[in-house]
């Protein structure tokens, strides 16, 4: 299985730090999110990764190179203008073609049991499976409504003040079947939460939600306060050398 790591974002809420360092390379307890996520994928058996680039692309290329020192093979996809989370997938469609693939929002730190996630995807024969993280404040996240089991019945991107007090939100790890590409608007910016997931639900496709459990989490670094909290959470973890 191949994985696309979304790492092109501007990280505007972390400015001025991200004016000179891409958000995906901001050090968190000694190692940036992008490298942590590559470590996680490699250790989970994924050794072919693509990385989309836009903001400070040479910094990312310099940190990752061809991937050999990290134990992976890397394909880069440069975006002169940002294409959004699903537009980036469309741009890599030829590289991703032929089998189910992963999409990882790589500028936050993901700790997820990838084997269990993929197993659920296959057992349910889903078109798309989304890892979900329980969050108390869901207003700025993609909120999934689940049935009594695993099936996603509805999805709202960033519901804001109308959101309930807590719920299961997009953790930034998706398992996609190739036919997901058919729902991505070609050659323009688009987003999984705003565009693709609602289109798949409207088309009657089965979407599964994988509830992350004990030992799994997403560590956000969207804001300076998030970054400080992440430092506390991840301090003391072993860092690969």
Distance between the termini: 25 Å
| Overall residue-averaged pLDDT value | 91
Element pattern in H and E:
EHEHEHHEEHEEEEHEEH
Structural class: alpha/beta
Please give the CATH class of the domain at 2-132 and 172-180 and 212-234: Alpha Beta
Total number of β-strand segments?
Answer: 11
Percent of residues in beta strands: 25-35%
| Main sheet properties | 7 strands, mixed
Strands ordered across the widest β-sheet: 3-2-1-4-9-6-10
Calculate Rg over CA atoms: 17 Å
Q: What are the low-pLDDT stretches, counting only 5+ consecutive residues below 50?
A: none
**C-alpha geometry:** globular
Number of continuous helical runs: 7
CATH architecture of the domain at 2-132 and 172-180 and 212-234: Alpha-Beta Complex
CATH topology of the domain at 2-132 and 172-180 and 212-234, anyone?
Answer: Spore Coat Polysaccharide Biosynthesis Protein SpsA, Chain A
């Amino acid at each position: 299985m191949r994985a696309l790591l979304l790492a092109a974002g501007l990280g505007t809420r972390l400015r001025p730090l991200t004016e000179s360092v891409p958000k995906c390379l901001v050090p968190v307890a000694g190692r940036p999110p992008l490298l942590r996520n590559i470590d996680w994928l490699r250790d989970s058996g994924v050794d072919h990764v693509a990385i989309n680039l836009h903001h400070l692309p040479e910094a990312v290329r310099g940190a990752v190179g061809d991937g050999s020192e990290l134990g992976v093979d890397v394909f880069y996809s440069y975006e002169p203008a940002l294409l959004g989370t699903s537009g980036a997938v469309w741009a890599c469609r030829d590289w991703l073609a032929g089998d189910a693939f992963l999409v990882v929002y790589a500028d936050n730190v993901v700790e997820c049991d990838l084997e269990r996630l993929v197993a659920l995807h296959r057992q349910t024969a889903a078109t798309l499976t989304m890892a979900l993280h329980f969050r108390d404040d869901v207003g700025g996240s993609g909120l999934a409504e689940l049935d009594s089991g695993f099936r996603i019945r509805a999805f709202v991107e960033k519901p804001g003040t109308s959101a309930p007090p807590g719920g299961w939100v997009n953790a930034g790890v998706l398992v996609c079947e190739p036919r997901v590409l058919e729902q991505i608007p070609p050659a323009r910016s688009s987003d999984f939460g705003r565009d693709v997931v609602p289109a798949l639900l409207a088309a009657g496709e089965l979407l599964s939600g994988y509830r992350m459990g004990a030992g799994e989490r997403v560590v956000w670094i969207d804001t300076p306060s998030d970054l400080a909290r992440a430092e506390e959470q991840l301090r003391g973890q072993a860092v690969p050398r």
